[in-house]
Amino acid sequence: MTPAVYATWSADVLARVESALHEWVPASAPAGLGEAMRYGVLDGGKRLRALLVQAAAQAVGALDSAIGTEAALRAACAVELIHAYSLVHDDMPCMDNDVLRRGKPTVHVQFGEAQAMLAGDAMQALAFEVLTPDEGEGAGVPAALQAHLSRLLARASGQSGMAGGQAIDLASVGHALNEATLRDMHHRKTGALLRASVQMGAACAGLTPHSLAWAPLTAYGHAIGLAFQIVDDVLDATQPSDTLGKTAGKDADANKPTYVSLLGLDGARQEAASLLQQAHDALGQTGLSTAALAPLAALAERIVHRDH
Amino acid sequence: MTPAVYATWSADVLARVESALHEWVPASAPAGLGEAMRYGVLDGGKRLRALLVQAAAQAVGALDSAIGTEAALRAACAVELIHAYSLVHDDMPCMDNDVLRRGKPTVHVQFGEAQAMLAGDAMQALAFEVLTPDEGEGAGVPAALQAHLSRLLARASGQSGMAGGQAIDLASVGHALNEATLRDMHHRKTGALLRASVQMGAACAGLTPHSLAWAPLTAYGHAIGLAFQIVDDVLDATQPSDTLGKTAGKDADANKPTYVSLLGLDGARQEAASLLQQAHDALGQTGLSTAALAPLAALAERIVHRDH
């Protein structure tokens, strides 16, 4: 994909996802809750998880049908809702105590801690609402697909995935972690949801863990998930706060272990490059055409070669 | 149901639910997260929601098949996980700041605020994991039923249900609410999950909103949900803390509106009695046999005639 083609592709995806989130995250939720939810999830972030869902869905042909297209849009919004809720809770005083996110005051600064906690809780529930449309909503996304998407998302979000990784992170402050433990933490904390994004996109064409392309796509998701975190650590150590849109050097200051502190800057960069190659190799094993895989390949490149 | 028959029935249900929760809430979750989750959900509470799921499932014949039995057990555990997570978050300093629950230190007192928030988040995800077993788990609960149960639970938990009710509650401190707003708050905050418990039990026999018994069972859930809250307010105003197992009079002290403050003690008791009659009337419209409905009828009585 040329940069121009990628730009057109991603702009189209982001416009559809943003529009759907505007529709599905209700301003009408009572007593300011909807306002806090919308503040936490709309108009923000790179939408990497949504892009992965859509790229994977396109690779396996899910977007050739109305049902697959609807399912992939719901899956993209659901993973973004989970990601956004985790940031809202992560930023709170009892966790990272961040006051700024994407250049704006964090949700608890804007709406208070209680409303921020509730908004995060409601965003998690909404993710599963979006995945399980009733008759009359959702253009007939089949129940089997609804259940499969919910299964993938719940497992990636919970104790064996994101929440479990956050617990390891919490326990690690001020402790020396070896590379294996750091890797395990990141595979759960950010990797699980990135991997699930790819799997959910694939599921939208009816793929299951028995399908031939499932394991290679999962390996791709695994590799780019870890690469994403390593590049995050590299950027945190090398970029100023205003480029990142958040406070730089915070993890190192908090004596949290990072890939840079464990492997050094050069070692971390080499590891990211190696994972990028693994991601491309995995795509080569899916049996899908280069054209179909182009968005996934472009996303892997962007994850590693980014400056914020 | 005689008291002895009810005691046998409920003891059997509670033993099966407790055993399943012990199995499904993993002690192995990393970095103390599993311990916090188990502390928050195991061995505690009246399990009213689980009893409602099981009573409704029994009423419609879901427990006559292995698949319906498995589904109803999963539904019962899932609603208890959602209820338990809401209590963990509700007790935190930024919400109700409660240090005692069921006579034990609350989760954040025992494990710290950050772990309590994560445990609640992971418990919500686990509820949806429990509802969406993979092949090899779950005795073949059909995908359509998995999707239906997830849909009912997500809608009862989120902005239009429990979380929305909590937001209204949060905004109401120190404000005069009229009865309509108070009723709306409770229909969401506690009513939605109690109603969903009944619906989820019914869904385990394949009932859908198109089924004849669906609307009466929903009306039953609606009535007992509101009755439950009114009785809670009456007990809060009349019983000592050690009978309740929590701090009595707290809502009144916080200048939160209650049914007792709005209707007076006698008015609240009359309203509860009227709702109990509505619940019985609704059961009479299901077309199900008195024997099949006996556990639901007994639960309605217990909800209104309890002392804690």
What does this structure look like?
Two copies of one chain form a homodimer. By secondary structure, the first copy, chain A, is mainly alpha-helical. Chain A has one domain (3-304): Orthogonal Bundle (Farnesyl Diphosphate Synthase). Chain A is built from 14 helices and two strands. In chain A, strands 1-2 form a two-stranded antiparallel sheet. In chain A, a hairpin with a 2-residue loop joins strand 1 and strand 2 (104-105). The radius of gyration of chain A is 19 Å and the shape is globular. The mean pLDDT of chain A is 92.
Question: Which key features would you list for this structure?
Answer:
homodimer; 308 residues; mainly alpha; Farnesyl Diphosphate Synthase; two-stranded antiparallel ribbon; 14 helices; 2 strands
Secondary structure elements and pairings:
The structure is a homodimer of 308-residue chains.
Chain A: H1 3-24, H2 33-41, H3 48-59, H4 66-90, E1 100-101, E2 104-105, H5 107-111, H6 113-131, H7 143-157, H8 162-172, H9 179-203, H10 214-238, H11 241-244, H12 250-253, H13 259-284, H14 290-304
Antiparallel strand pairs in A: 1-2
Helix pairs in contact in A: 1-4, 2-6, 3-4, 3-9, 3-14, 4-6, 4-7, 4-9, 7-9, 8-9, 9-10, 10-13, 13-14
In short:
The structure is a homodimer of 308-residue chains. The first copy, chain A, is mainly alpha-helical.
The percent range for strand residues of chain A is under 5%
Shape annotation of chain A: globular
Biggest interface between chains: A-B, 57 and 58 residues
Second-tier CATH architecture of chain A: Orthogonal Bundle
Major sheet: arrangement of strands of chain A: 1-2
Going by CATH, the homologous superfamily of chain A would be Farnesyl Diphosphate Synthase
Overall strand count of chain A: 2
Could you please say which CATH topology of chain A applies here?
A: Farnesyl Diphosphate Synthase
The termini of chain A sit apart by 21 Å
Question: Could you say which structural class the secondary elements and strand pairing of chain A correspond to?
Answer: mainly alpha
Largest sheet of chain A: 2 strands, antiparallel
What is the highest CATH level, the class of chain A? Mainly Alpha
Elements of chain A, N to C (H/E): HHHHEEHHHHHHHHHH
> What is the overall pLDDT average of chain A?
92
Instruction: Please give the count of helices of chain A.
Output: 14
| Overall radius of gyration of chain A | 19 Å
Unreliable parts of chain A: none
Measured as a percent range, the helix fraction of chain A is over 70%
